[in-house]
Design a protein that fits this description.
Elements (H helix, E strand, L loop, with lengths): L2 H14 L3 H18 L3 E5 L6 H11 L2 E7 L12 E6 L5 H9 L5 E3 L3 H9 L3 E3 L5 E2 L4 H16 L12 H20 L1
Parallel strand pairs: 1-2, 1-4, 2-3, 4-5
Antiparallel strand pairs: 5-6
Helix pairs in contact: 1-2, 3-7, 5-6
Length: 189
């Protein structure tokens, strides 16, 4: 999409959606649609990804290359189809994250729940989808990072904070629905 088109679209949107929420929703949709057309492949933070089967299933249907990046401590023993590539890195704390950050390009899709990695990838123009089917965008990353910071601060002060809920079947369905949505849009262009 050209910048002129986006500029005109934003001007139209400003007239239609006068409140901030409407602008954010529409600009998020425009941002996702712009990036979807350019998607090349899927990168997965493979150390703790609970939706591996869903990713492989959808990627196989749409013939999209998938790259799992994980440490040697998280080697998967199952056989993957030819469109899946596995990259193993050292067990250093952020080794998989740094490898993904070095491999991705603008328009790629990353599946991760890691907010630090997400903030790095957003700066490179990468789409971020969590294992629960939630999009991480430039519009919500600050809030998510701030929430993470506040929880960590509370824990350091001796307080307790809730961890993530167990992944439900509904979460898996939401993830698959969002993944299929982006892959089908990619195929249309």
């Amino acid at each position: 999409m050209s910048r002129l088109f986006l500029f005109i679209l934003v001007k139209i949107v400003n007239g239609i959606y006068s409140n901030e929420i409407g602008r954010r929703i529409l600009s998020k949709d425009v941002e996702l649609r712009t990036m979807q057309k350019e998607m090349k492949q899927i990168f997965v933070d493979g150390d703790s990804c609970p939706v591996v089967k869903e990713i492989i299933s959808a990627a196989s249907r749409y013939s999209v290359q998938v790259t799992f990046v994980s440490s040697y401590a998280h080697v998967r023993k199952e056989d993957f189809p030819p469109l899946v590539k596995q990259i193993f890195v050292d067990q250093d704390r952020e080794a998989a994250d740094l490898k993904i950050a070095n491999l991705v390009h603008s328009g790629d899709l990353a599946v991760t729940d890691d907010l630090g990695l997400s903030s790095l990838l957003l700066a490179k123009g990468v789409l971020i989808l969590t294992s629960r089917g939630k999009w991480i965008t430039n519009h919500n990353i600050d809030y998510l990072l701030d929430s993470r910071y506040r929880s960590a601060k509370q824990r350091r002060a001796g307080g307790k904070s809730k961890g993530p809920k167990k992944l439900t079947e509904q979460d898996r369905e939401n993830f698959l629905k969002e993944l299929e949505k982006i892959l089908s849009i990619k195929q249309d262009f």
